[in-house]
Amino acid sequence: MKNYLHFTAGDTLLFQTWHPNSSGAIAGACIGLVLVGLLERWLSATRAELESYWHQRTLALTSHDASEEKCCEDDTASEKSGFAAGRKIARSVPPFIAAHDVSRGTIYAVQALLGYILMLAAMTFEAAYVISIILALGIGEILFGRMNRRNALH
User: Fold this and answer.
1) 3-class DSSP state for residue 20?
2) Which of 74, 111, 124, 128 could link 11 by a cystine bridge, Cβ 3.0 to 4.6 Å?
3) Which pTM value belongs to this model?
4) Are 41 and 144 in contact (CB under 8 A)?
5) pLDDT per position as a tens digit, 18-28
6) What b/e string do you get for 38-50 counting C-beta neighbours within 10 Å, with b at 16 or more?
7) Secondary structure class of 3 (helix, strand, coil)
């Protein structure tokens, strides 16, 4: 393994048994890395969309619960549950909702795995891999990046 950027074949890619030795094998590895990079950018955009959806659902769930509590409780019970003089104490952290939080954690773990795969491929210093990863992340951002910024516009 060379410690500088190179175009020579034979480096180990992710596993000890994966040694792309021919130009066709390197091209196949580059296509696979492009797909991994695109998938990582898509997952990032999908996670941002889901975060927006989950935020709206959480607001709907908590505002519905708050309005029911507010209209139906007496003064002593309302002070215990977070209502003081008709005002609700604002939450600093959204409530735990298993369907949202387990999904969020799973998507993040897969996204981290893909990021580490790309990092380990780049650490081989094979120039074709590095170029493929940079192009994939750039193209992925062009295709899916606007989905991440949608939350900032609203």
Assistant:
1) coil
2) 124
3) 0.77
4) yes
5) 899 999 999 99
6) bbbbbbbbebbee
7) coil
